Amino acid sequence: MGAGWKDRTVLDLACPDLRVGLYYDGGTHAGAAQKTKDFVQIQELKDIGWDAVRADATLLRRERPRFISQTSKAVARAVAAGR
Predict the structure, then answer these.
(1) Full-model pTM
(2) Annotated domain spans of the chain
């Protein structure tokens, strides 16, 4: 993933050239401890120049256009940054 990464997570889908990744959060991500771990992982990814988009079943089922927009914006930011 890059210098400084601690091998703490695996993205569900990643584009290393753009440094954009997608996570799908299943039921195991509902607890408070896991939410804290997820937050830390996203911050660590940001610290090394990655942009991560998270989704769960509710978001994909009820707000799919929002997820697509968030993903498109992450890709656009990467392209604008010259990645």
Answers:
(1) 0.76
(2) 13-80
